[in-house]
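Hi Y.,

Following your request, here is the sequence exactly as I used it, all 195 residues.
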Amino acid sequence: MPADDASSRILHPTGEQLRILAHPLRSRLLGALRFHGPATSTALAARLGTNSGATSYHLRQLADAGLIEDDPGRPGGRTRWWRAAHDSTSWTSTDFDDDPDARAADDWLARNHARRAAGWVANWLDVRHEWSTDWRSAADQSDYHLDLTAAGLQALMDELHAVVRRHLAEVQADSPDRQRVTVLLEGFPSPERTP
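Below is the corresponding structure, written out as tokens. Let me know if you'd prefer a different format.
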């Protein structure tokens, strides 16, 4: 799990934030604010194909949970601008073992993320021919199969998250060739494990 810092939000073991986030529209709203930046409820409703009343309601739910906030760059006025409070959200599923509602929320979020990640990969495969040779060479899909203990898997994931955090800290904002990239980190016991 990534470290809890200004750019990351670790959900607390009460499960309340997890339950708030485990809603299709709220999850999409938070994702849109993270990817596209600050927006009004009207703009978000148009982007996501929803009505502004439902969008406003769910934005307030996300704000009450501390996942989004007013954009300080656009204070006051008749139009309220929202932004994501953090660049990412993480939690440890086992923190919710004793809370059936939070476990259900965790399950929904994990499966929703898996579906979205599969869509991201499929989209890349559909459009990769439009990208330069440099970008196509840099992009990668790899799978590794290791024999590890649970502690070994935890250590591996911690190291991989640390590498990603280091690259986040080294963002080259002034580079003309800079593009948003998606990195998916997943580690779990293999479905093809030997009996």
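The domain at 8-131 is CATH 1.10.10.10 (Arc Repressor Mutant, subunit A).

Thanks again,
Q.
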